[in-house]
Amino acid sequence: MIVGTAGHIDHGKTSLVRALTGVDTDRLKEEKARGITIDLGFAYLPVDGGPALGFVDVPGHERFVHTMVAGASGIDFALLVVAADDGVMPQTLEHLAIVDLFGTQRGLVALTKADLVPPERLAAVANDIREACRGTVLAGADIVPVSSATGAGIDALRARLIAEAGVLGERREDGRFRMAADRVFTLPGIGVVVTGTVLSGSVRLKDPVTISPSGIAARVRSIHAQNRQVDIGRAGDRCALNLTGEGVTKDAIQRGDMIVDPALHAPADRIDARMTLLPSESKAIAAWFPARLHHGATEVGVRVVPLEGEQLRPGQAADVQLVLDRPIAAAAFDRFVLRDVSARRTIGGGHFIDLRAPERQRRKPERVAERAALSHHDPRAAFAALLDTPPYARDIDAFARDRALSAEARDALLPPMAHMFVTGDERIVLGDDAWRHFVTAVVERLVAFHAAHPDLPGLAREKLRVSVVPRLPAATLAMALQHKDLVGAVVRDGAFVRLASHSVQMGAARESLWAAIEPLLGGPARFRPPRVRDIAGELRRPEDEVRQLLRFVGRLGSVVEVAHDHYFLRATMHEMVGIALDVSAETQDGFFGAPAFRDRLDCGRKVAIQILEFFERQGVMLKRDTLRRVQPRYDDLYAPAPP
């Protein structure tokens, strides 16, 4: 169990921790010289037959509240320290507000320096403490009088903390590993060491980790937990990790970075959150309110945008959007605290809801419903609610990543009858109702299209994608069209989609003319086919008649107009994409020049450039200066229709 102290400067937090553990947490020369805590201090209390208790000793001076906030994240138990001679002071109230905002559910109050005042003063201060704690997470908390100087009450307090640790038990380890870095240093012969509290999951020797948000890859060389060398660090442990890897230096890792499972590295800079504005604030928060956000051990500038009404009033809790000055590593339901831009007072705080918040349309009903679904703390309930909310199709991997869920916990999210399509880095899931609606919508859209355009071969795949709900990603749509619920009714024909029952008849006259034209576009001259006027001249037919037929055949998908009046067979287009891929494979980075493509086709420079520029317009190729490469996801654009 991690115990975090809180309280006003010079109320005896460090002395109390030393009395409980025998460890002096003031480690800096300046701290010892000035007699105050400046940085976070750590101490451990071994427990017979159980895990050690960890203590985080935080500064009480108002100038170091940002450091106190860093220490408050990840604690299990709050120990509010109030000196009997001073009583409740300004930083007592601010630290209490921070503990409350972080949602620390368990704690008690140590009434220190009890030997310096008479009993009636102890009773009066205790009443003041109860009044200050009213309405907070420490409302009704026990108040234990102690004296670090005489030892009075120390044994009872120590026994109480050990009993609380037994009630708490061990944290769950089924999440992915996350540790908030609050100290970074080097040791001779060892290297870079990062300390922090493990927020979720576990880490073992030789595990790969990522330093987020920078993205530096590292490996765990050794682990110390609760000041002892171990093979595994678990959720709730105070750990020191010896990290190694290219780019791992003391200067490359910042206080506030997260050491995470590589699968969790996805920094966020626009976050929807649930926030409470403290009742002590004198003014409401309006759109684009500037503040300082504290999350874990990191501090970053932020702008606050209320999402429920135009303002967030003192004492009110509501959804807001946080627009950060720079990305941070975070997870859904992480706690945060906001302080004013001058760092003089705490103004509010809360927890994150959505790490991928949209910049626009933040108050649309669909977005409100989506945010409400994400507000479910239980991941299964949240994911089930998302599947019933527009846009209905959800990436289960992204959802699990943003909640730091393990692979096993992710797989447990799938509801019965759900449909999942795995494409590259995405696993898109639809609920059964949404899938049935999608199947019906695809068929109905194609029926309507064929009725309106009976002479066209089908609907362009991208137009179909954006016209039906749920709107699936392009790669997911390609897979969905091959699902057994659609494969018998719908045919994917290259860039087009049509009903299996749909066919276009040319008629006898057109078929006769096409039979004469098709050979002219194929064969050895297929990479430099004749233009409309040349075909008309050779067949002694009017140009308009030839042009109209080729346009009609183009709508059928048999030919493609690469340049004005210059048509290529679809099979030739597919062949040329394959040739481009071959040419691309012969280069180091996949980019090739027009001469290499021209030489393979033997079609002349002008025609080769026209073909390449057409492929660029269609998205088949990407251009960089004078070089091009094929976009792999478009390499099947002119592929033959499946049987």
From TrEMBL:
InterPro entries in UniProt: Beta-barrel_SelB (IPR057335), EF-Tu_GTPase (IPR050055), EFTu-like_2 (IPR004161), Elong_fac_SelB-wing-hlx_typ-2 (IPR015190), G_TR_CS (IPR031157), P-loop_NTPase (IPR027417), SelB_WHD4 (IPR015191), T_Tr_GTP-bd_dom (IPR000795)
Domain named Tr-type G: residues: 1-169
Chief location category: cytoplasm
Subcellular location: Cytoplasm
Keyword GTP-binding: yes
Keyword Cell division among UniProt keywords: no
Keyword list, A-Z: Cytoplasm, Elongation factor, GTP-binding, Nucleotide-binding, Protein biosynthesis
Entry function: Translation factor necessary for the incorporation of selenocysteine into proteins. It probably replaces EF-Tu for the insertion of selenocysteine directed by the UGA codon. SelB binds GTP and GDP.
Protein name: Selenocysteine-specific elongation factor
Name of the coding gene: selB
